[in-house]
Amino acid sequence: MEQRDKPIGVFDSGLGGISVLRACVDLLPREDFLFFGDSAHAPYGEKSLAEVRRLTLAAVDHLLDQGVKGVVVACNTATSAAIHLLRQAHPDLPVIGIEPAVKPAAQAQESSSVLVMATPLTIREDKYQKLAAAFCHQANVISLPCPGLAEMVEQGLFDGPVVDAYLQDLFLPFRYCGVEYIVLGCTHYPFLRRAIARNFGRPVAIIDGSQGTARQLRRQLEAKGLLSQRAGRGTVTFQNSLPEKLAMSQTLFQMDY
Questions:
Q1: How far is residue 87's CA from residue 126's CA, in Å, rounded to a whole number?
Q2: For residue 128, what is the enclosing H or E element?
Q3: pLDDT in tens, 65-96
Q4: Which of 16, 40, 213, 254 would you label with 246, given CA atoms 20 to 30 Å apart?
Q5: CB–CB of 189/154 below 8 Å?
Q6: Alpha carbon 99 to chain centroid distance?
């Protein structure tokens, strides 16, 4: 098999990265994709830095063992913790991470305050802190850790009284402080987009980084001559460290959110 016809590996700490996978498939429909979700060890966002790095490196090795031509780290926490280590270890491999979409939100003309929802570890890491600081002169960037929210998606909770109660408590201090954008800084959160919009209590723009990640993937593959030239659509294959999550992986991939 030619290198350009090999699959693209997409990795997440669980199921959330399927939101990024969707964006990549939409932009690059001719490519084959292999998605690996590490639900057995989810959530990453509340683990130690050393543990997240170990799990991320192991997951990428798992994808490389299956012959992928590039890797998308579709997890904000894993990107913050380990993307530099992956690029050092695999200098010739396209390795694309994801980061919260703070830049487009902060630079929007109507933006006064930007609320960034993310896991506790993502917010603690230097990578995110530098990103937020870079745009604090253009908008009031508010960092909001959301412990337990990614687990709701892992459990199949996308709406309902449990989700509503969590989000209403979370948002209560921020409804009247000029927030015009909510940035979804965890790839699990797009599946809660409708619940987030409803429970914030007033109209607000909600964005995430999946489209930017897909565009960066295309740029890197094109630069290395690795874009597939097949005529038809590619395939999408799901793997998970918890096999019982495979059915939910398909559901999320097809979900209207």
A1: 17
A2: helix 126-134
A3: 999 999 999 999 999 999 999 999 999 999 99
A4: 213
A5: no
A6: 8
The number of residues in the chain equals 257
The rounded distance, in Å, linking the Cα atoms of 166 and 59 is 31
Amino acid type, 140: N
Q: Residue 100 in contact with residue 116, Cβ under 8 Å?
A: yes
**pTM of the predicted model over 0.85:** yes
- Which token pair is 113? 């305050």
Nearest to 77 by CA among 157, 24, 150: 150
3-state SS, residue 74: coil
CA–CA separation, 187 vs 257, rounded Å?
A: 13
Active-site residue, from 24, 136, 177, 186: 186
Active-site annotation holds for 136: no
Residues of 213-248 as b/e, b for ≥16 C-beta within 10 angstroms? Answer: bbebbbebbeeeebebeeeeebebebbbbbeebeeb
Q: Residue 178: what pLDDT?
A: 86
Q: Which of 75, 136, 146, 177 is catalytic?
A: 75
Backbone φ, ψ for residue 11 (5° rounding): -125, 140
The secondary structure of residue 180, as a DSSP letter, is E
Q: Is the pLDDT of residue 118 over 80?
A: yes
Identity of the residue numbered 177 = C
d(CA 122, CA 106): 18
Q: Is 75 a catalytic residue?
A: yes
| Tokens representing residue 204 in the block | 């607000």
